Amino acid sequence: MANKGGILMERYELGRLLGQGTFAKVYYARNIKTGQSVAIKVVDKEKILRVGLMDQIKREISVMKLVRHPNIVHLYEVMATKTKIYFVMEYCKGGELFNKVAMGRLKEDVARKYFQQLINAVDFCHSRGVYHRDLKPENLLLDDNENLKISDFGLSALVESKRQDGLLHTTCGTPAYVAPEVINRKGYDGAKADIWSCGVVLFVLLAGYLPFQNSNLMEMYRKIGRAEFKCPSWFPPEARRLLSRMLDPNPITRISLAKIRGSTWFRKGISTSSKSTAVDEVSTDLASTNTDDKQEAAQMPKLNAFDIITLYAKFDLSKLFEEPCLKKEAKFTSRKPASMIISKLENIAKHLKMKASKKDAGLLRFEGTKEGKKGTLSIDVEIFEVVEDFHLVEVKKSNGDTLEYQQILNECLRPGLQDIVWTWQDDQQQPQQSDDQFDEQQRNNQLQQEQHLDNQQQPLEQQQLLLQNHLIQQEQLP
User: Where do the Protein kinase domain residues begin and end (predicted)?
Assistant: First the structure.
């Protein structure tokens, strides 16, 4: 592969094969410019189209854009040709957690560390409306520092996948780790199903074997349905209690992630200074957050060139193999400090009587107080720093009714933010306003945008166009 041409080979030196499946191969690679080790998954488009799995690939790409967390495998970039899709991802040198467990049960402190990181990452996924649905040691990788990383979001589901009953209905996952309600095929809560799988993972880490196993699949499903398992004698009492609540066959009474994190066994060894296990602690109310502009800027996620390309509609690489979704998200740029953007958003939320909370650096959540047609409306707002005092803000519905979200976006957010917005990404999608002054302001914003791109962003635009042309024309990739 190393002698092949194309933009992939211009940027990466490919090495050994790390693994392969029916539709994809994963290679070790090195970034030629930075020397960084990466893993590149090469997906055969023809094969996945033949068996109807393109939607699964699209979903995996969409999900991995949403979930950026220290304990989730990071997707650096995606490239595509007519025949191949390339995922350039974080390389996890430690391999699968399964390989560790295969050698025997782990020490309690080691198992707890991995479990804490797993729960933190799953909690973050759920906060972004993502349910993994296939959590198992084979899909949990370890980096150079023995930190856990969730991988393989191919079977994951988004909040939008729920039917009108508010439940998911696709039966998927690995039999030994799947929740009883998923087996019953009557609809299930994705979050509760993930918690069950996390419980099975915890049992495996502490015991070195599965809680539910039988050569007869139907017999194993019967045991899962009744939660028939026995903890070994070496399990500490606190872990036994936690497992009995996680492996509760009734999803309604099954323990929540918040209560797992508050349990005695889980919290043992956690210090307030720990970054690996307390990355995304419980949300803090925006009203109590009072930091200066420099502190806010330091917390904002920084965008590299690829991030800017993928977030900006004109250069959205995902459109090569993904249908655009404009109804549930919007983006705008602002030349105001992050603290001013947050303050504006907070005031609008207060006016709308929505609860505002801060989930992580640069990520805000607004939740309604009343149930709508499809549950409580929830809106995520993520702020990215492009350069100093120039931010890109992504507004996305994470739960609830799309029409209700659209109404709030067009009638409250757009008008309420107009004095800090430099430009909305998709102004052509915005309904015509009756206010002539606002129309004039939008036209001026558009002119300013064009002038800014010509005078200040020309090198970046050239780089983006070059990359776009490479992706469309390049057919020599392996």
Answer: 12-266
Closest CA to 360 of 62, 156, 18, 67: 67
Q: Are 364 and 347 in contact (CB under 8 A)?
A: no
Structure tokens at 157: 């589901």
**Judging by beta carbons within 10 Å of its beta carbon (0-12, 13-18, 19+), is residue 454 exposed, middle or buried?**
exposed
Contact predicate 333/393, CB 8 Å? yes
Q: Which of 227, 228, 234, 195 is nearest to 105 (CA)?
A: 234
Contacts of residue 252, defined as CB under 8 A and 6 or more positions apart, other chains included, come to none
CA–CA distance, 142 with 362 (Å, rounded to integer): 26
Pick the catalytic residue from 44, 55, 123, 134: 134
Half-sphere exposure of 28 (CA within 13 A, CB side): 9
- What is the length of the chain? 478
3-state DSSP helix/strand/coil percent for the chain, to nearest 5? 45, 20, 35
Neighbours of 388 (CB within 10 A): 8
Q: Would you call 389 a catalytic residue per the annotation?
A: no
Write down the residue that tokens 């909370």 correspond to.
357
Distance, CA of 45 to CA of 130 (rounded, Å): 25
Residue 24 has a CB neighbour count (10 Å cut-off) of: 18
Q: Which of 84, 25, 202, 180 is closest to 476 using CA atoms?
A: 84
Domains of the chain: 7-90 (3.30.200.20), 95-156+175-262 (1.10.510.10), 305-424 (3.30.310.80)
Residue 41 marked ligand-binding? yes
Q: Which residues contact 468 (CB under 8 A, 6 or more apart)?
A: 315, 317
Q: What is the mean pLDDT of the chain?
A: 77
Helix (H, G, I), strand (E, B) or coil at 217: helix
Tokens of 124: 């973050």
- What strand order describes the sheet that includes 375-387? 284-285, 355-360, 363-372, 375-387, 390-399, 329-334, 423-424
For residues 92 and 138, give the distance between their C-alpha atoms in angstroms, rounded to a whole number.
13
From the list 194, 59, 187, the residue with the least C-alpha distance to 124 is 194
Looking at residues 269-298, what average pLDDT do you find? 45
pLDDT at 450 over 60: no
What's the average model confidence in pLDDT over 394-407? 85
Cα distances from 284 to residues 116, 130, 257, 268, 446, in angstroms, run 20, 21, 17, 22, 36
Residue 432 pLDDT grade (very low, low, confident, very high; cuts 50, 70, 90): very low
pLDDT digits (tens, 9 = 90+) for 72-96: 999 998 888 888 889 999 999 999 9
- Lowest-confidence region among 24-38, 47-61, 192-206, 435-449: 435-449
Pairwise pLDDT comparison (451 vs 270), residue with the higher score: 270
Within 10 angstroms of residue 81's Cβ, the number of other Cβ atoms is 20
Express each pLDDT in 168-201 by its tens digit. Answer: 656 666 889 999 998 887 788 889 999 999 999 9
